[in-house]
Amino acid sequence: MNHPASTTNPPLKVDSHLWQACRRGLFQFNPEQAHHLAFAGLKLWQKCGAHQPILPQWTRHPSLTTKKWGLHFPNPVGLAAGLDKDGEAILAFQALGFGFVEVGTVTPRPQPGNPKPRLFRLPESQAVINRMGFNNQGADALVRRIARVRETGKLSIPLGINIGKNAKTPIEDAMNDYLMGFKTVRDFADFLVVNVSSPNTKNLRTLQQATRLKIILEALQEENQKGTPVPLLVKMSPDLQTADCVRSLETAVDAGFQGAIISNTTISRDGIPNAERYGDGGMSGAPLFDASTKKLKEIVQHFRDSPIDFIGVGGVMNGEQAVEKRAAGAELVQAYTGFIYGGPTFAAQLCEALVTETKRLTS
Ligand SMILES: Cc1cc2nc3c(=O)[nH]c(=O)nc-3n(C[C@H](O)[C@H](O)[C@H](O)COP(=O)(O)O)c2cc1C
């Protein structure tokens, strides 16, 4: 099923008109400018003290509490990696009701990312195409910022850090970057995500191949065991054949990884008219939902007796689709593009649908 963005679960009334007006305004700008504007607003809100979740009747509903990897998630709806790469608005996202936030992808050294334009909105398809290429301020800057956030005592949700390699590092030396990134960020993360699935860093996805992945994941786990171990997760591409993905994740289980994120963006352009005009990059949003959910379901079934849990991400645009991701076997759900189109109450909308579903199942 491909669900259009119009939904059986209409936006919470509180701000839908206000948000539609804001969105119209923001969408007048090119996508990257709009991102910076919206982000400036979030940072300002955070500076003014925002951290308490909005709409707690949904976002802090007791039925949504999830315990995983020794962590307490007030709700299972998380912000996916890539939106807050540098950890600049973590408390603002907590205030928007997200039950966890994944920052990054961060690389050991700062880098500018790919040349612009590199981000495209496709409103008629409720999708985004991006080839950002891990533009970020580097791991040192990220941990300084996270340390300041933790010092405030206001962070009440789990914080994941997603690590990757610098574009200039040859792929054969990728391991050095992952290890360096890991060592820098480990003490600041509640869980850590190894990103080998972005389509926008040359050859990165070849690291998903089981024999190559095994070497990287084992080295990271060895380093992890030298201190208080942090839960380790790996993020996979929806474009990998299921059998290959299973083989790779078996190496993750063997290496003691506790979770996998299915999925990153896709290089497919199915359902996108005149896709060639956007060039290369990963597609996210509504057209990704079916493929990423199918992959999730197949993989979860394979690992149902293994000690690994899944975060489902890809194309969640409304509450009904968050419910579907969970039905497919995801313990936790994440979104990025749905938030861009759905606005400030997006996390609360998903929580509302999950509460309603839980009530339905238990009544
Ligand atoms: C503009 C943009 C940048 C992204 N950057 C990253 C990233 O740095 N690291 C990562 O693991 N995923 C990144 N993603 C992928 C998302 O985390 C998510 O896996 C994907 O977009 C599918 O979810 P969605 O359909 O809810 O957006 C990015 C996605 C977008 C749209």
Key attributes of the depicted protein:
13 strands, single chain, TIM Barrel, alpha/beta, disordered N terminus, binds flavin mononucleotide
Structure notes:
The protein is an alpha/beta fold and 363 residues long. 38% of the residues lie in helices and 15% in strands. The chain has one domain: Alpha-Beta Barrel (TIM Barrel). The protein has an eight-stranded parallel beta barrel, surrounded by five helices. A three-stranded antiparallel sheet has the order 5-6-11, with no helix packed on it. β1 and β2 form a beta hairpin. α6 packs parallel to α7 and α10 packs across α12. Bound molecules: flavin mononucleotide. The site of flavin mononucleotide (FMN) has 27 residues, from β6, β11 and α11. Flavin mononucleotide (FMN) binds next to β6, β11 and α11.
Question: Can you describe this structure in just a few lines?
Answer:
The chain has helices at residues 16-26, 31-47, 56-59, 90-95, 139-151, 174-185, 210-224, 242-254, 289-302, 319-327, 337-342, 346-362, and strands at 66-68, 71-73, 77-79, 100-106, 119-122, 127-130, 159-163, 191-195, 232-236, 259-262, 282-285, 309-313, 332-335. With 363 residues, it is of the alpha/beta class. The protein has a single domain, classed as Aldolase class I (TIM Barrel), CATH 3.20.20.
